[in-house]
Design a protein that fits this description.
Structural class: alpha/beta
Distance between the termini: 47 Å
Largest sheet: 6 strands, parallel
Shape: globular
Number of helices: 7
CATH superfamily: HUPs
Oligomer: single chain
Order of helices and strands: EHEHEHEHHEEHH
Strand order of the largest sheet: 3-2-1-4-5-6
Helix content: 25-40%
CATH class: Alpha Beta
């Protein structure tokens, strides 16, 4: 049986409620059977995440616990990986062939897609679905995922935690508990 699998990548530094809203909407709107959460390592093309990979994995595990359709995929955290989406998708195709993959992107990332390593080849490996934001211009060929806009970003959460502000409405409670217990982002 062919599965429809969504791929949701990011640093997840930390994973937050907007990430969960995107995944939930993608499951519903795209008829997905699974979401593979793919945290990035420290690729050369972007700043390194603030929290160590082990912490980000732990927070992600806490955030997706209880949802059997969510799988945490650690392939981009392995020491021998490039961190390029094309390479990760190629690896995934070899590991679990005969499935249909849909890469889930924010409108901001989709707008920058031409700067990605082997973008045209990525489009051959999977479908693309984009979380539309008000005012974003998308190609007619991409599927869109509709969610109520949420003003939540990981960088804002980290800054608020550093200022000792309340972020409880932005994070799943187990993730917030983990951040407090480990003293992250202080």
């Amino acid at each position: 049986m062919t599965l429809r699998i969504g791929i949701l990548g990011g640093t997840f530094d930390p994973v937050h409620n907007a990430h969960l809203a995107i995944a939930g909407a993608a499951l519903r709107e795209l008829g997905l059977q699974q979401i593979r959460w793919m945290p990035t390592g420290a690729p050369p093309y972007r700043p390194a995440p603030v929290a160590a990979a082990a912490h980000r994995l732990a927070m992600l595990g806490l955030a997706v616990a209880g949802e059997p359709r969510y799988i945490v995929d650690e392939r981009e955290l392995r020491p021998d990986t490039s961190g390029f989406t094309f390479d990760s998708l190629s690896s995934l195709h070899k590991e679990i062939p005969s499935n249909f993959f849909i890469l889930l992107l924010g409108a901001d990332q989709y707008a920058k897609r031409d700067t990605w390593h082997r973008w045209k080849d990525i489009e051959k490996l999977c479908g693309i679905a984009v979380v539309a934001r008000p005012g974003s211009k998308l190609d007619a060929k991409v599927k869109t995922i509709s969610i109520t806009p949420m003003s939540i970003s990981a960088s804002d959460i980290r800054a608020r935690i550093g200022r000792r502000e309340d972020v409880s409405a932005m994070l799943p409670p187990p993730v917030l508990g983990y951040i407090r217990e480990k003293g992250l982002y202080r």
